[in-house]
UniProtKB/TrEMBL annotation:
Positions of region (Disordered): 1-25
Record keywords: Cell membrane, Membrane, Transmembrane, Transmembrane helix, Transport
The organism of origin for this protein: Streptomyces macrosporus
UniProt protein name: MFS transporter
Residues that span the membrane, as ranges: 56-74, 95-114, 120-141, 162-183, 189-211, 236-257, 269-290, 302-320, 332-353, 365-386, 398-416
Upper taxonomic lineage: Bacteria, Bacillati, Actinomycetota, Actinomycetes, Kitasatosporales
Membrane topology: Multi-pass membrane protein
Length: 438
């Protein structure tokens, strides 16, 4: 077995030196700290504007509902659908130019959106904003994964812990961003857009100064045929499908959950509290969950456990629907759904990101990281239409939720099998803690 990043043979499980208890872990490298803080700042700037875009389009600009939906869909396509492009460019040119280009485009896009009054200008601005993220995010995510593997190889701990910290930073930004945006909206939407652009000016300046011109341990991708090889990689595509089923389930926070909350309370106002509950859970519990569970499980087992937790969240709502609870009691199943979905997310996301470096070809980590988002995003796009139709049918109220529970549960069977280099390193560490049998 060889490691797909360095092509150095993976160590076989065997005795390893014990790590002294109480010994502090080495700090993260300056590059890792920069990238993790980047994710925090990126989400603050992003979520200070985008949650309020639909209201601005339908209110201040007076666009029709179908046109608002089209604009939002184009932004999602310009981002998720083109992640694979950003990843491929990262492999070819390196992290620094792709990140700086993404920041520059995001600054222009937010400034344009703040001043756009015509439909074509709004569409152009949101496409530019989406493409900027399609450049920026795969570059940062693939480099974080690469450096997390390097950190793990140095004996500092599991890569999933680094990736969990990256997730926490992103979720913290997603929590703070809307609060900042709501404050700025007391002035106007243009002020929120310009503030978001200002955040990316700071990110651009910081990265131009601090981001190394060539990251350590990085092999440039060269030659052609990387996409064809990736599309023939059944193990990677299976991971994409399983991850896509999780994203489809997560998307129900915006599709199925609002209907359930409105049924129970007659209003969607409690949604804000449930979204805040999800964000706070990730910020406060992601690292403990990773330390106690994620580090001890191989990526396949961590993802399987997470998918089953997500399925259990849908099953809780399905079990409660026949009783048709309302009021505060009616919110209990929805809150359980949010908690179980978020716990599943805490296991799935770091495990999937930790798994990709073991499946990627040498020098193609950016391509594979971007493809994970693009392929799973296409699954969500197709599945969301089917989910919307399912919720609108006249079936018994528990049936749609049971069908939604079956999707992540069944996707456990899609997870690729077989040992990976990270499994070998995990077994190596465990072997050092075992006493030899007599």
């Amino acid at each position: 077995m060889t490691d797909p990043i360095s092509r150095v043979p993976a160590r076989r499980p065997g005795p390893a030196p014990k790590r002294r208890t109480g010994r502090p872990r080495p700090p993260l490298s300056p590059l890792l700290r920069l990238l993790i803080l980047t994710q925090l700042a990126f989400n603050i700037g992003f979520y200070a504007v985008l949650p309020f875009l639909a209201g601005h389009l339908g209110g201040a600009l007076g666009l029709a509902g179908w046109l608002v939906g089209l604009v939002l869909g184009l932004r999602t396509f310009g981002q998720q659908g083109l992640f694979v492009v950003g990843g491929a460019l990262t492999d070819r040119y390196g992290v620094r130019p792709v990140v700086l280009a993404g920041c520059a485009l995001r600054i222009v896009g937010f400034g344009w959106l703040g001043h756009a009054q015509r439909t074509w200008a709004v569409i152009g601005a949101v496409l530019l904003i989406g493409f900027a993220a399609a450049l920026f995010s795969p570059a940062v995510e693939s480099e974080v994964a690469r450096q997390a593997v390097r950190w793990e190889r140095a004996g500092n701990g599991s890569r999933t812990r680094v990736l969990a910290l990256f997730t926490v930073a992103g979720q913290a930004g997603a929590f703070v961003g809307p609060l900042l945006g709501a404050l700025l909206l007391t002035v106007d939407f243009r002020t929120a857009c310009l503030a978001g652009a200002g955040v990316f000016v700071l990110i651009l300046a910081g990265h131009a100064w601090l981001l190394p011109r060539r990251a350590p341990d990085r092999a440039r991708g060269g030659g052609r045929g990387g996409v064809r090889t990736m599309l023939r990689d059944r193990r990677f595509l299976a991971l994409c499908c399983a991850y896509g089923s999780y994203l489809l389930a997560y998307n129900q926070l915006y599709l199925a959950l609002p209907d359930e909350v409105e049924r129970a309370t007659g209003s969607q106002a409690p949604l804000a509290w449930l979204f805040a509950l999800s964000s706070l859970l990730v910020v406060s519990a992601q690292l403990p969950v990773t330390r106690r569970v994620g580090d001890r499980l191989a990526p396949r087992r961590a993802m399987a456990a997470g998918l089953l937790l997500v399925a259990a969240g849908f099953a809780v709502v399905a079990a409660a629907r026949p009783a048709d609870p309302t009021g505060t009691a009616g919110l209990v199943p929805a809150a359980c759904f949010v908690v179980l979905l978020t716990l599943g997310q805490m296991l799935i996301v770091p495990a999937a990101r930790a798994w990709v470096p073991d499946l990627a070809e040498d020098g193609r980590l950016g391509l594979y990281t971007g493809a994970l988002s693009s392929v799973s995003g296409l699954i969500v796009l197709a599945g969301s239409a089917a989910t919307g139709s399912l919720l609108d049918t006249g079936l018994p109220p528990a049936v749609p939720w049971l069908v939604l529970a079956a999707v992540p549960a069944a996707s456990v069977l899609l997870l690729p099998r077989g040992a990976t280099p990270s499994d070998a390193r995990r077994a190596d560490r465990r072997g050092g803690l075992r006493r030899p049998r007599p």
